[in-house]
Amino acid sequence: MAGNLSNSAGPISSLTRLQALNGVFSVFKKEGPTSADVLNALKEALLREAGVNNPNPRKRKRQCMKMGHGGTLDSAASGVLVVGVGNGTKMLSAMLAGSKKYTAVGELGKATDTLDATGTVTLEKSFEHITSADLEEKLKSFVGDILQVPPLYSALKKDGQRLSVLLKQGHSVEAKPARAVTVYSISLQDFSPPLFTLDIECGGGFYVRSLVDDLGKALSSCAHVKSLTRTKQGPFTLEDVLHEDQWTLANVLKILQSCPGADQTIEAHSKASSATNTL
Questions:
Q1: What CATH number labels 100-233?
Q2: Which of 39, 89, 217, 239 has the smallest number of Cβ neighbours within 10 A?
Q3: Which of 37, 74, 159, 263 is catalytic?
């Protein structure tokens, strides 16, 4: 584990350890902030602990601590957000393509423009005819390799800008073409009309919001996502995450899945001793 790294030449500063981090770990993203907001708050917490004054990771010109996340979660969603630091950012592509699990609460009878509860209701239809057996039967058609149209409000880009940003600016945006995605399993956990709860395991590029929207249509009604939690991404589960009050270097070192060469990186940073307090 990276937490056991030491240096025979003497104590290693928090800043040196921070600059030498290489690996992946996971944090808990709560509802509200964007995934980028969470990443920047994490950076700020670690930099502040390391003694960097007035850290501003969005505008810092020299980045000694490289960090990224392995898959955007919607602002309204919560759950596992995988973080790569240092050379660990090169491991994130595998996280993007790997298996993910979600728990989604859907609401029947209302469709929204964002396909979730943050949007404006665009359609209301009756749902009293729908039974749990109907729902379970329709879910079968969404398992396996399927085609799915991504939501208009998404992190996908057109001409370098996110579709969601273009829509909020009043631009006209066309839906992206349907693309192949993989759903390993879906199970109905609860049915209390108009609400229903699904557990979903899927591959990369899959949108739970699109699934719930398509499911509502398949049931001759409509639906949107009421709440969404990512419970697993790659090897990381909700049991592995660091919550905001746990964002310290010591805790990151305890759970970091390190890249090869972490010892040598620490040693190089320590010997260089020219680590500055500007990142």
A1: 3.30.2350.10
A2: 239
A3: 74
